[in-house]
Design goal:
Order of helices and strands: HHHH
Structural class: mainly alpha
Strand content: under 5%
Distance between the termini: 24 Å
Largest sheet: none
Helix content: 55-70%
Shape: globular
Oligomer: single chain
Mean pLDDT: 87
Low-confidence stretches: none
Number of domains: 1
Radius of gyration: 14 Å
Length: about 120
Amino acid sequence: MTVSQAIEQIDALSPNMLSHPEKCRHLAVLDERVRCELYQDKSMVQPVLSDVHDPAADLMIPSPWDEAYVYYTAAMIEYARGETARYNEHIGMFHTLWGAYADHLRRAHLSRGGFRY
C-alpha cells in the first residue's frame, strides 16, 4: 500500500479535517513501530519512511495486513475527537491485523533462525 492509497482509505473510513502532513505523521509513526518492534531494527536513528510525503512511497506492512495503517490512523482521528466507541472499533481492527502480521513474520522466520519477537 502506498501513502496516497492509505490516506484515501482513511478519509473514506473516517471523514476528517486532519491535514495531509498529520496523516503522514501517523503513517510514519506506525512504520517506525514496525521497523523497531517487528523487524527488531534499532540501528537507525532516522525513521525509515523519510519520504512519507511522497504519495507513491510504499508502506512497510504488505497486503493482506496493510489495512493496519488505515485502522491505526482512523483510531487516532477518533481518539482526538473523543469518539471512544469508534476508536475502540478501529483500534481493535488494528490490533487484529498487527497480531496477524507479527504471527506471519514469526512463522516465516522461525526456520531461518535469528528472528526474535
